[in-house]
Amino acid sequence: MSLFGQIACICFGLSWCCFSVNGGNLNRDDVKNTVNSLFKKVTSEQVKHDSQFVPPVFWEKKRGMWESDVRFYFHGHEDLFLMREAFSIYDDNMFATAWIASCLLESFRYGNGPKPSEEAITAAVMSIEEYHNKNVNYSNSLMTFWPQKYNATFQAWSSYPYNLHHFFHLATSKMLHPSNTFWTSSACMT
Predict the structure, then answer these.
(1) Which one in 8, 40, 42, 171 has a CA-CA gap of 20 to 30 Å to 154?
(2) Whole-angstrom Cα distance, residue 22 to residue 112?
(3) H helices then E strands: how many in the chain?
């Protein structure tokens, strides 16, 4: 399961626990401990500062976002299963952050969830602000799924996943080409 999937499950569990504790037969202390533990896990996953793409070790990340990962479906031999589980690409998208911030706020407002910090919610809102559609020159609520960059050739903003773009560019570069001496070294042959 991707980190986004795990966080989604945690958010769902957090919301469920907060809404269910008042009417169920659940032990309040156990629920409170579980909710606090899930809350800490979710809030710890928020990106704390911008980071640039450094191939092939670090993905581009923006402060305030919550992580969502893209995994490739490597099928076949169990070694490919390990590749699928071990390899992911950070996907910088607005949906994950908007949804997780909403879950945190609703679990506080309507349930017994901890209050998210003003800093965390402000960082999330400020990061989402960058996803307004920049192709219209008036105030609007139109949002894009991925960040936008200006395309001077078409004189328009285009939306695409930066890190997938970085990965595919890297994959087609000479760095990952099979003729590169790195891939024929004894370190990679073992």
Answers:
(1) 171
(2) 9
(3) 8, 4
* Token pair of 80 as six digits: 């490919």
Using CA atoms, how far apart are residues 161 and 167, in angstroms rounded to an integer? 10
Nearest Cα to Cα of residue 166 among 72, 91, 110:
91
Neighbours of 8 (CB within 10 A): 19
pLDDT in tens, 75-119: 667 777 777 777 788 888 899 999 999 999 998 998 878 999 999
Contact yes or no for 133/144 (Cβ under 8 A) = yes
Q: Which of 93, 46, 49, 48 is nearest to 69 (CA)?
A: 93
Structure tokens at 10: 């945690």
Q: Cis link prior to 56 (omega < 30° from 0)? A: yes
Give me the DSSP letters along 65-103.
Answer: -B--EE-----SSHHHHHHHHH--EE---HHHHHHHHHH
Q: What integer best gives the mean pLDDT of the chain?
A: 78
**84, 73 Cβ separation under 8 angstroms:** yes
